[in-house]
Amino acid sequence: MTTWGEVEAAAPELAAAVQTCFRRAKHKTxxxxxxxxxxxxxxxxTEFADGELTFGMMPGSVKLAxxxxxxxxxLHSPSVDPPDDPADWPxxxxxxxxxxxxxxxxxxxxxxxxxxxxxxxRIAATGDKLVIESWAPGGQVRRVxxx
Length: 147
What we know:
- This protein is an alpha+beta fold.
- It contains 3 helices and 9 strands.
- The protein has one domain: Pnp Oxidase, Chain A (Roll).
- The protein has helices at residues 4-10, 12-23, 62-69; strands spanning 28-33, 39-44, 46-49, 52-57, 72-76, 92-105, 108-123, 130-135, 142-146.
- Strands 1, 2, 3, 4, 5, 6, 7, 8 and 9 form a 9-stranded antiparallel beta sheet that branches.
- The longest helix is centred in the first third of the chain and has 12 residues, at 12-23.
- It is globular, with a radius of gyration of 16 Å.
């Protein structure tokens, strides 16, 4: 189990960049797995607080059933269309992990993400390369540049 606080401690610059991307708008996207194993994409709101990345779900929702059956999730930051100058694109962030239910009531369920991977994609300041930074528990931040 790797909390968001552990991501911040192990990869502080990457964690800050990911949080910036996730906080730029209210609605994110979450992928869960349906009963037959096929992916389901849903809108989602998240929060970073007290060393955790959390989200809630309404009772009876299909994504709640998905997560209770198979806790693997992938979260994607809000997308922003690239501006005329690619170097000005703020990038996008992804977090994968397992949803851990922390509370439940008649009003819904709250989950925290046990992180298995974090990734940030952006354009280099020179505007001529795609830069992908990623991190997984127990590892170092990896940086890949593509032209």
